[in-house]
Amino acid sequence: MKPGTESQTAVMVAAARAAAHGRTEVAAFTDPTALAMLPADVRRRIEQYRAGVPPKGLRSRVRRRLLEGRVKMMVPRTVAIDQVIRETASPQLVILGAGLDGRAWRMAELADTIVFEVDHPDSQRRKRERTASLQPAAREIRFVPVDFARDRLDDALAAAGHDPTRATTWVWEGVVMYLERADIEATLGVIQARSAAGSHLVILYTSPSLIRTVAGFVLGLIGEPWSRASRRAPAFCRPLSSLYSSASADCVRSAADSYSTAGSIARSPSVVYGVTARSASSTRR
Ligand SMILES: C[S@@+](CC[C@H](N)C(=O)[O-])C[C@H]1O[C@@H](n2cnc3c(N)ncnc32)[C@H](O)[C@@H]1O
Question: So what's the pLDDT on residue 254?
Fold first, then answer.
């Protein structure tokens, strides 16, 4: 990320959610919060898209095609993770690298849940400004500024009042591809240590491929390249399988299985993501 600026990839994925809200055939998808969380210039562009204003000029047409591609990616991934959160119904939800995630403001199912929004401080600052006028759906929202590569997640969560004796659903959506192996392992260690019986972990990751390596380099142009670890087997697979007994099977399972709830839109050929959700109930020491 460029120092001092919010994550541009977080803006890009939130823009896709804002574009899709009320306009996708996947009935389970909804995100009425995303538009309000966008920076003003991006919000205007999405409003034009939603109003059916055709793009003018090459640059706008390319931008529109990219947005439509991201909509195809974001709808199933959002629906799949929403479903895990609903099913696990934990009293605590920790969203790691939250970006402009709107779940704490839009999911009525979180009415009894404390949501911990963990993100890089530069990203989180802007989100706090833009969500100030939104009505929370969660029982409580606690902002926890953390740079995974520099700060101590464990201390930050403890200071924010996360209770390791109560079950937690952990969501790590679209973040691991930016992190190096050591930071992924350190974060998994904290998750393990703070997961009471009945906790769950959801990771949205990419499996390596040439096209995604290229995409990762292109994102480097906006200051958010994918890490070296993202070019090998999902970097968390080995550490995860030592923490959770059957995790390695999940790591190689096709993403299409995870997305069956969202139908054929999940089979976008250029972007294949996997969601892995494991219960930590058998691993708590
Ligand atoms: C692609 S966005 C995903 C945001 C959100 N999870 C979603 O799916 O809408 C990547 C997120 O990872 C966060 N991130 C990347 N590197 C980070 C780091 N070293 N420490 C903390 N957060 C980081 C960014 O701030 C950003 O919010």
Answer: 35
The answer to whether residue 285 is domain-embedded is no
For position 235, what pLDDT does the model report?
A: 53
Residue 273's pLDDT band (cuts 50, 70, 90): very low
Tell me, in angstroms, the distance from the centre of ligand 1 to residue 97's CA.
Answer: 4
How far does the centroid of ligand 1 lie from the alpha carbon of residue 94, in Å? Answer: 13
User: Does the pLDDT of residue 20 top 90, yes or no?
Assistant: yes
In total, how many domains does the chain have?
A: 1
Pocket test for ligand 1, best of 153, 178, 184, 219 (most atoms within 8 A of CB): 178
CA 178 / ligand 1 centre spacing (Å): 8
Query: Is residue 3, in this structure, part of any structural domain at all?
Result: no
pTM comes to 0.85
- CATH number for 138: 3.40.50.150
Pocket of ligand 1 (CB under 6 A): 7, 9-10, 13-14, 97-101, 119-120, 123, 146-149, 173-175, 178
More confident residue, 29 or 209: 29
DSSP H helical ranges for the chain:
8-20, 34-37, 40-50, 57-88, 103-106, 121-131, 153-159, 181-193, 210-220, 237-243, 247-252, 255-258
In a domain, 284, yes or no: no
- Taking CA atoms, 38 is separated from 205, 223, 233, in Å, by 24, 19, 33
Q: Please report, rounded to a whole number, the percentage of residues in the chain having pLDDT higher than 70.
A: 78
- 1 in a structural domain: no
